[in-house]
Design a protein that fits this description.
Rossmann fold, 2 domains, 3-stranded parallel sheet, 10 helices, elongated
Length: about 210
């Protein structure tokens, strides 16, 4: 099981690419991207909140609804998969492992990212929380991932960048995990990942060979 945003794909890089194009289209300086990225908080700030902050400071010539739609498109339409990540997925599957994406978020945006990154052609299944009505770290998300490939959590691993979603969810179910640290230090006192990785390629290879 592998998380999508900022794990399989660099969601922040994709969002920034789209954001810069949006600012350029509206005739605004690229320097605004920095504070917008801060408000965005890796995609965890609700889109209406980001849109309101932008409209309060910038003359975008857009309605709030149109800006929300544009912000969703920024990350969805610029989702890209690194070749080395694709190769790691292929190695894991060639070794007999089933690879399932497990991602929080609305179905249209998340499935759009998966498709635009070409992941729909590489993985065995994808579970989007919006389709099942609950988010990671709730057990139902992980059980749905196992069921999607006719498997069991008994021999599963979870890979992700979020301590409070990916790693906590795995911990509660007794599933070993790999945390993609992205330059951060682990701070949760009550649980820890089984392994910490510098890159998603390292994470996939570790889980596949454990």
């Amino acid at each position: 099981m592998i998380d999508l945003d900022n794990t399989l794909i660099d969601r922040d890089a994709g969002f920034r690419t789209g954001l810069l194009a949006l600012l350029d289209d509206r005739g605004l300086p690229a320097e605004h991207a920095d504070w917008i990225m801060e408000i965005d908080q890796r995609g965890y700030t609700p889109r209406p909140v980001v849109a309101k902050a932008m409209l309060d400071r910038l003359d975008l010539g857009l309605t709030e609804d149109d800006l929300i739609t544009a912000l969703i498109a920024c990350s969805r339409d610029n989702a890209r998969l690194a070749p080395e990540t694709a190769a790691a997925i292929e190695r894991a599957r060639a070794a007999g492992h089933r690879v399932v994406i497990v991602t929080n978020g609305p179905v249209p945006s998340q499935t759009g990212k998966i498709r635009n990154a070409g992941l729909d052609r590489l993985v065995d299944a994808s579970i989007v929380s919006g389709a099942i009505g609950t988010d990671k770290p709730e057990p139902a998300v992980f059980h749905a991932a196992a069921a999607a490939v006719g498997g069991s959590l008994a021999d599963a691993w979870m890979i992700g960048d979020r301590d409070d979603a990916d790693i906590l969810g795995a911990h509660r179910l007794g599933v070993p995990s790999v945390w993609l640290h992205l330059g951060r230090t682990w701070t949760a006192p009550d649980y820890r990942p089984t392994h910490t990785a510098d890159t998603v390629v390292e994470a996939i290879d570790h889980a596949a060979n454990a």
